[in-house]
Structures
1.
Amino acid sequence: MLTLFGSPISNYYNKVKLALIEKGVPFNEVLASTHSTDEAILSASPLGKIPFIRTGQGALCESQAIMEYIEAAYPQPPLLPADAFAAAKVRELTIFIDLHLELVARDLYSQAFFGGTVSEGTQARVRKQLEKNIAAFKRLAAFAPYVAGETFTQADCAAFASLPLVGMATRAVYGEDLLAAAAVDYKPYIKLIGERPSAQQVAVDRKAAQAQATA
């Protein structure tokens, strides 16, 4: 059976977990910390990043590589369109969410979520980049009703896990949600995805892990 390693607090872990649940793939979960120096973890994820998985064939890291493996190994129900170009457009949108929104906003997380401080220079740099990237994302995102169009796809796994973090982090640091300020009306979309049993399970497990972490 496939084993997913990481933490339910991690958005990239939840991106993968959401896909697994949507597809009905049996899997175990094992808690693993990011940036671990444990050789057992480094042998599966050389940078010590989470999530990673172990399969009967070996280990695999990087959330999008894992998503591609899941789609190929468990093709039903599909989370990518059958048409090659349409599938590429879903991948394109997922990359925008992961790399051009969440990864940029991540530089704010120490102040937004963990009581740290982000320098004014970093704040200004991140804001400028996010405003540019959000405008680009807005050109690609459909929200009709799903982020890539009419069907639930891999891009929704990324969007559900990461868009709220971008919104919360920017609101905490800048006093405004930069997604909402750019007229990206994502909250009704997050509510829609949140009605899916898979998303509800991810949310319940995330809240339980957060409560345990702060206990």
Note: The radius of gyration is 17 Å.
2.
Amino acid sequence: MEIKSLAAQHICEVLKGNWSDIFLEDVLQDVTLEEAKFIPPSKNSIAMLAHHIKFYNEAVLFRVVKDSQTVNYEANGFDVPELKTEVEWQHLKEATLSSFTNLADKVLAMPEEQLFELTPSGIATFYKTLHGVTEHAYYHMGQIVVIKKIFRNK
């Protein structure tokens, strides 16, 4: 199997079928709008974290396709629009989840040798950056689980 196929698989397994037995799709599935908007002492709501995960995946996607589009790194994806309805929250959840498959699709389409090139920032290779996508998702997934527990036990 090609390395890029393994990297794409690793990204998609954040949603389902990974070694950790905790999946972003399941973690977000039962979160209501009220829970999503709840701001715990850590100051980041579930909605903010979901939007941030989506932002990060899209920023990496721009690097993978070498897109010159400007990404607003100042807000870092924590600038989630106000969610007023359950439908808006459902759309954010769907967009967050699809950001993983969108990125994985681009990884599968990239030349394998690009994996070992430095990203435009010059800090890391694409290969390392793509692994960072999953590490980043797991980190914030843990926060989401804790926020759900805080909200449901308050």
Note: The chain has a mean pLDDT of 90.
3.
Amino acid sequence: MESKTKFRKATIVDLPQIINLLADDMLGSKRENYRNPVPEKYIKAFNRIDEDEKQYLIVVEGEDRAIIGTLQLSFIQYLTYKGGLRAQIEAVRIRKDKRGSGLGEEMLDWAVKKAIKNGAHLIQLTSDKKRPEAIRFYNKLGFTASHEGMKLHLEKDMKG
């Protein structure tokens, strides 16, 4: 059976819906600033992502063409692993009423295939420890917690 979802590159017109997805959970609601018109910081960030050939910001449309999912896939060139290329998955979000539908697996499958096509030797992601369901989901797909991640927030107020 063919999926009725459509994966495509995000456009600036999609930005309000993407931000809404990012803000629509307990963690996102504290760090995102969903409003219309979209704050300028988001527009500038979108434009930088859109212009960078190593970045893929995608949206998933449902049957009604509404955006039901999004993720960002970035490619990082480095010297280790003999000059290897690493793929990084960020900001995976699925609209609440579509969670548990298999869409997350479809999205991660898309990202893995894109990483392979681009020559990445490794694909990685991080998930906040406050999202145990997401961590179980990623583990089910074969991702392993092989490293201890650390962050240093440089900007105290990410709102605005």
Note: Residues 6-140 form a domain with the Aminopeptidase fold (CATH 3.40.630.30).
4.
Amino acid sequence: MVFIMVRVKAKGKQRKYWIIAYAPELLGGTNKPLAKILYFEPEELINKIVIVKGLEFTRSFEDRAMNLYFRIVKVTPAGAYTTLIGHDYAREIITSKVRRRMSKVELITRVYTKDGHRVKVSILAMTTSRCDRIHKKKIRRILNEFVNEKAKDYTYEELIYNLSIRKTWHNEIVSMISKVYPIREFLIYKTRAETVIIPTDQIKNSVENKEEILKSAETFSKKAV
């Protein structure tokens, strides 16, 4: 679990507090603390992003360079609750897959999940050797159709989870596009739920029992840091 300082405007001698942000239920809920966050007011926590290394969940060596993004959507006396909104890989991982005498096939698309949210999905495929434009076009079409169809059956969180952490359809996708042209490398290198955010006028409703939150919160102390 990491320690995070939420960036807020200077507030003089106003008291600071710690709170624990938890993973969404899909990834363990209160059994999986993500970070310990420093804040002034509970409302400031809503919509803040918590970044965690993918290795925390996948235990895959490659995912040491993957970041998972969680948005805080609710704060209660028990802690801050998050939702999974995306992932991405470090640039060096992406560039390491691009090699000479191979063709790069990239798709960046936006799909709508069954709960009505828009998710941006970025995919990279590298062929075993140089291929024609027609092959690239067919591969992109297969990738686009596949992700769009899957999105219809899953919530944004489930879709991102299956694309980034479980890599549920990785082998199936590679098998499909390899029928068009043999594939050497494949990576879904970024996802992002673009419409998942608490509206400003609803932030107060996302904080439950503020007085109890502050009363039971751990107070920040410079001596303890």
Note: The mean pLDDT is 92.
